[in-house]
């Protein structure tokens, strides 16, 4: 605008006008006039010969004062119209213009600047004036471009601001939604769990009573279903908290070896029914006392081993635990055992139905069931592996499954990071290999007992068992010896009752008689019988 | 300690012991027996098993003598011998031996000398077979221990 003003002043123009191409590019719209008012939306078609002539050159062109682009003021017969010059003003091509498939876009776009000398002045355009106009035209082009760019950037900035506000609002809404959902879940969970526990507890009690076979079957089904439902509820709650990232590991020190044995003990009943031998293999350098989330690690192992048992009809299952070195399967996942941490690797191999390698990625997806799994009447909720995977990831580890195909069994492997406890792991550092020990039952320590069995082998086995429980065992091989040896020091007497009849009862009576005077020191008599 | 050698041996051990269970040579009692072995009693299983085989040998000899003369068989003595054998084999988990003893007892009850002789022969065969197998198993155990490994725990049902 200033440019045109200055131009008008310098050249003492009557009028100075700027025509801009419309959005359609088919017309020129009068955008600015220096002195006269102009009607809004006053346009001329762009394809006028005079316009083409002006656009065709970068020079200022004299045009007729009567041409449409010059007719900006009311025509009055009195006036001798001054000379008019028009020059093209190149426009910066902006990609903001809407439609992208116009042929005109490849050509340059121009605006038209029209300059009119005062009427009745008999002035003529001089060459130097024309040169000036041409130079100014370029300046005007730049100025126009700047104006447009500025406008665009303002627009973009406003847009960004709006988007930021919208995003912030969306974020706050999402947070509110999550909070609401967590509250809902927490409350509903409690509300759902209470009746659930009541059902489970009372069904268990019902099982203990006298029931007809049909009734028993019904109660068992109720119990199984409610347990499954309870598991599902727990799983859903866990998973929702895991997805938020709001679940945190509960770290503590625990015995890793004991944990594995506990898992096996839990799985044993099912394995018994299915006649599946389970082998546990703990590496000798596996630390005993570690730091980590015991409950969740157990959940992972239980889930994996449980699946192995569940989906194997015959064969055997092997569970191996070792400290893993750096050559892990996944090259991106570089394992470096640092000073106070190590990576535990657990491999569970089963000889069950195996898995089609294409289905393996689906296994860890929530609720997804492959064809082969669905054909089994599995009681799985479908969430187990997904949750295990999340826990493993929380423990900075990795979990995957390998299978040679259908019918060839499969191996589930996972690594997790655990801390090494300061509690003594020295026994593992000695070179002496040890058979894993089952912790002794402390309530029998030092208990003096007497074992009477004629059969040497049985006697030795019974003694071994009692010694293992912590007792001090004396053995005798006949009834007479038993009577001789028994004393007030023996708290329990185990007697093999192999032959039915009066004999054993007599012995029991005679032991009883021996202690009539010291009734409070009478030993407990336990009959052992192997008669099946 | 060569971990691959140990792993191989452990694998062998696992497979062997599982096969013994699956073929019926051993039952759950044997695995219970293995659990009783610890640092305080490292040779428990070997000792019990060895005692069992000695017992077998002695009892079989006695019973053989009793069954020798067809006209003067002391079935009571044979029965008592079988009873002992049945008890011992149950205690160590020698399933096949125990099963033969059950049939053996029947033959004694009905005083079937021919049947008894057959059972005696079968018991002899079974205990010797088991003895060889367990010897192999213990050898594998020793190899594992010498290579610095630990014996895998195997749960059988």
From TrEMBL, chain A:
The modification 4-aspartylphosphate is found at residue 496. GO terms for biological process: negative regulation of ethylene-activated signaling pathway. SUPFAM superfamilies: ATPase domain of HSP90 chaperone/DNA topoisomerase II/histidine kinase, CheY-like, GAF domain-like, Homodimeric domain of signal transducing histidine kinase. Gene3D superfamilies: 1.10.287.130, 3.30.450.40, 3.40.50.2300, Histidine kinase-like ATPase, C-terminal domain (3.30.565.10). Residues 448-532 form the Response regulatory domain. It is a multi-pass membrane protein. Keywords: ATP-binding, Copper, Endoplasmic reticulum, Ethylene signaling pathway, Kinase, Membrane, Nucleotide-binding, Phosphoprotein, Receptor, Transferase, Transmembrane, Transmembrane helix, Two-component regulatory system. InterPro entries: CheY-like_superfamily (IPR011006), GAF (IPR003018), GAF-like_dom_sf (IPR029016), HATPase_C_sf (IPR036890), HATPase_dom (IPR003594), His_kinase_dom (IPR005467), HisK_dim/P_dom (IPR003661), HisK_dim/P_sf (IPR036097). Its EC number is 2.7.13.3. It is found in: Endoplasmic reticulum membrane. Pfam families: GAF, HATPase_c, HisKA. PROSITE patterns: HIS_KIN, RESPONSE_REGULATORY. It catalyses: ATP + protein L-histidine = ADP + protein N-phospho-L-histidine. GO terms for molecular function: ATP binding; ethylene binding; ethylene receptor activity; metal ion binding; phosphorelay sensor kinase activity. Residues 187-422 form the Histidine kinase domain. GO terms for cellular component: endoplasmic reticulum membrane. Its cofactor is Cu cation. Belongs to the ethylene receptor family. This is histidine kinase. It comes from Arabidopsis lyrata subsp. lyrata. The gene is ETR1.
From TrEMBL, chain B:
SUPFAM superfamilies: Histidine-containing phosphotransfer domain, HPT domain (SSF47226). Residues 41-148 form the HPt domain. GO terms for molecular function: histidine phosphotransfer kinase activity; protein histidine kinase binding. The modification Phosphohistidine is found at residue 83. It is found in: Cytoplasm, Cytosol; Nucleus. InterPro entries: AHP1-5/YPD1, HPT_dom_sf, Sig_transdc_His_kin_Hpt_dom. GO terms for cellular component: cytosol; nucleus. Coiled coil: none annotated. It comes from the Eukaryota. Keywords: Acetylation, Cytokinin signaling pathway, Cytoplasm, Nucleus, Phosphoprotein, Two-component regulatory system. GO terms for biological process: cytokinin-activated signaling pathway; phosphorelay signal transduction system. Histidine-containing phosphotransfer domain (HPt) contains an active histidine that mediates the phosphotransfer. Functions as a two-component phosphorelay mediators between cytokinin sensor histidine kinases and response regulators (B-type ARRs). Plays an important role in propagating cytokinin signal transduction. This is Histidine-containing phosphotransfer protein. It comes from Arabidopsis lyrata subsp. lyrata.
């Amino acid at each position: 605008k200033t440019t045109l003003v200055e131009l008008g002043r310098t050249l003492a123009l009557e009028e100075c006008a700027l025509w801009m191409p419309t959005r359609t590019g088919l017309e020129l719209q009068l955008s600015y006039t220096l002195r006269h008012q102009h009607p809004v939306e006053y346009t001329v078609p762009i394809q006028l010969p005079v316009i083409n002539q002006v656009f065709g050159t970068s020079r200022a062109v004299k045009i007729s004062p009567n041409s449409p682009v010059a007719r900006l003021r009311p025509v009055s017969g009195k006036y001798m119209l001054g000379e008019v010059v028009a020059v093209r003003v190149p426009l910066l091509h902006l990609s903001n213009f809407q439609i992208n498939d116009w042929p005109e876009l490849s050509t340059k776009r121009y605006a038209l600047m029209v300059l009119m000398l005062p009427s009745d002045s008999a002035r003529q355009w001089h060459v130097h004036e024309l040169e000036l106009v041409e130079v100014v035209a370029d300046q005007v082009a730049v100025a126009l471009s700047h104006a447009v760019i500025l406008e665009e950037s303002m627009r973009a900035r406003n847009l960004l601001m709006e988007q930021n506000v919208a995003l912030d609002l969306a974020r706050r809404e999402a947070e509110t939604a999550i909070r609401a959902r967590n509250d809902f879940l927490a409350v509903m969970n409690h509300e759902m769990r209470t009746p659930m526990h009541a059902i489970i507890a009372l069904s268990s009690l019902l099982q203990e009573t006298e029931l007809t076979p049909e009734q028993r079957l019904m109660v068992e089904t109720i119990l199984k279903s409610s347990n499954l439902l309870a598991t599902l509820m727990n799983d859903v709650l866990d998973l929702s908290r895991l997805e938020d990232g709001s679940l945190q590991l509960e770290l503590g020190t625990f015995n890793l070896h004991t944990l594995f044995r506990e898992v096996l003990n839990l799985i044993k009943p099912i394995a018994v029914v299915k006649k599946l031998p389970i082998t546990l293999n703990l590496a000798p350098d596996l630390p005993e006392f570690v730091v980590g989330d015991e409950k969740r690690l157990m959940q992972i192992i239980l889930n994996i081993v449980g699946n192995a048992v569940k989906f194997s009809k015959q064969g055997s299952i092997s569970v191996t635990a070792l400290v893993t070195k750096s050559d892990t399967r996944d090259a991106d996942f570089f394992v470096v055992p640092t000073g106070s941490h190590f990576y535990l690797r657990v491999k569970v191999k089963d000889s069950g139905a195996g898995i089609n390698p294409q289905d393996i990625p689906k296994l860890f997806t929530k609720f997804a069931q492959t064809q082969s799994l669905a054909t089994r009447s599995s009681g799985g909720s479908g969430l187990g592996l997904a949750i295990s995977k999340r826990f493993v990831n929380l423990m900075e580890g990795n979990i995957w499954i390998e299978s040679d195909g259908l019918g060839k069994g499969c191996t589930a492997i996972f690594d997790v990071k655990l801390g090494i406890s300061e509690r003594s792991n020295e026994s593992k550092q000695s070179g002496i290999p040890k058979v894993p020990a089952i912790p002794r039952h402390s309530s029998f320590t030092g208990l003096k007992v007497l074992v009477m069995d004629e059969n040497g082998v049985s006697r030795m086995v019974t003694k071994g068992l009692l010694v293992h429980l912590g007792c001090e065992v004396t053995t005798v091989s006949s009834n007479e010896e038993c009577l001789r040896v028994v004393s007030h020091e023996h708290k329990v007497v185990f007697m093999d009752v192999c032959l039915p009849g009066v004999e054993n009862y007599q012995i029991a009576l005679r032991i009883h008689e021996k202690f009539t005077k010291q009734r409070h020191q009478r030993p407990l008599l336990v009959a052992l019988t192997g008669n099946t | 300690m060569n971990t691959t050698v140990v792993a191989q041996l452990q694998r062998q051990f696992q497979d062997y012991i599982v096969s013994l269970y699956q073929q019926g040579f051993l039952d759950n009692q044997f695995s219970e027996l293995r659990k009783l072995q610890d640092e305080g009693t490292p040779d428990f299983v070997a000792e019990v098993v060895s005692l069992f085989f000695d017992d077998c040998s002695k009892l079989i000899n006695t019973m053989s003598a009793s069954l020798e003369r067809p006209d003067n068989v002391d079935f009571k003595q044979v029965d008592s011998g079988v009873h002992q054998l049945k008890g011992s084999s149950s205690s160590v988990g020698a399933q096949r031996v125990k099963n033969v003893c059950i049939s053996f007892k029947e033959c004694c009850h009905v005083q079937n000398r021919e049947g008894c002789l057959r059972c005696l022969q079968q018991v002899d065969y079974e205990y010797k077979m088991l003895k060889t197998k367990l010897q192999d198993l213990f050898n594998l155990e020793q190899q594992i221990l010498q290579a610095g490994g630990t014996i895998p725990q195997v749960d059988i049902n």
